[in-house]
Design goal:
It is a single chain. 54% of the residues lie in helices and 18% in strands. The chain is built from 12 helices and 8 strands. The protein has a 5-stranded antiparallel β-sheet with strand order 1-7-2-5-8. It folds into 2 domains: 166 residues, Sandwich (Jelly Rolls), CATH 2.60.120; 102 residues, Homeodomain-like (Arc Repressor Mutant, subunit A, Orthogonal Bundle), CATH 1.10.10.
Length: 278
């Protein structure tokens, strides 16, 4: 049975052994964190197959393109579900959230090789869940918000270490892998194929060919996808006006930014924001 939003918990901690049942429509309402102690889970994420094994951690944002989720018979896992609006309302730094989102869309599984990080992740799960359940606290709303922010910062710390490790690994990787790494780093301000081709010391035409061969998507299409993600997230941040977002993304003028947004989102930025309020 689908969950009713007004009755939905903000934080749900689940422990599973041998059988893992997630709430109906969980991916629509919750950001999902799963630490796999034993066994494995398999899934399609953005139409690509993945397998999370023991000692690994998987993270999906709410509304992710997730399908064919299955668990091994010997699964043992700890799951933390955080209601999407509650998490977004307490993000300490918007720019870092965008970096995490873009990284997670390409790399939903983190390899927590260090035992210390495994313990930190699980401790972080329990601290947030315990604080959510401590409804008798005199300053319940305030401390829960602070705990949510601390949770996010701790998880970003984990993501940052994975990101840096991956960056070092890909420095000697294929041209396609190096392009995707550069794209994650520079897509906020750089939207021309030539910029990335210059960094890789190849022609723009050859970069488009490489991407097409690897993913059936051209470099210019990848750049537009990443820029689109950033624009959508920045427009969700009501603390930034449209001119500030245009400056942040290195557009020469607000009118040029508006034309670009209309191209990638189908509507101008002001209308997109108005729709968010519906």
């Amino acid at each position: 049975m689908a969950m009713e939003k007004e009755k939905m918990d903000k934080v749900i901690l689940l422990k599973a052994e041998g059988n893992l049942e997630l709430p109906d429509d969980f991916i629509l309402h919750f950001h999902t964190h799963i630490f796999c102690h034993r066994g494995s889970l398999s899934f399609l994420f953005n139409d690509r197959p993945y397998k999370c094994k023991a000692g690994e951690f998987v993270f999906w944002f709410a509304d992710s393109n997730l399908a064919n989720l299955t668990f091994s018979k010997n699964i043992k896992a700890t799951v933390l579900l955080v209601e999407k609006d509650f998490l977004f309302a307490n993000i300490p730094d918007q720019s870092w959230s965008i970096d995490v989102l873009l990284h997670s869309k390409e790399n939903p599984i983190l390899h927590l090789n260090d035992k210390t990080y495994k313990q930190k992740v699980l401790s972080n799960f329990h601290l947030l869940s315990d604080k959510f359940l401590e409804t008798g606290h005199r300053f319940y709303s305030e401390v829960l918000k602070l705990q949510m922010q601390l949770f996010i910062l701790e998880m970003w710390h984990t993501f940052a270490n994975e990101y840096e490790h991956r960056k070092r690994t890909l420095e000697s990787g294929s041209l396609y892998e190096r392009f995707m790494q550069l794209l994650q780093e520079h897509c906020m301000k750089e939207r021309e194929v030539q910029f990335y081709a210059n960094r890789l010391h190849i022609t723009a035409k050859y970069l488009n060919y490489i991407c097409k061969q690897n993913t059936d998507i051209t470099a210019s299409e990848w750049i537009q996808r990443y820029a689109r993600e950033r624009i959508m997230l920045l427009l969700q941040n009501k603390n930034l006006n449209i001119s500030e977002i245009a400056d942040e993304m290195n557009f020469s003028s607000r009118s040029f930014f508006t034309r670009y947004v209309r191209k990638v989102l189908g509507v101008p930025p002001k209308e997109y924001r108005e729709r968010l309020g519906d």
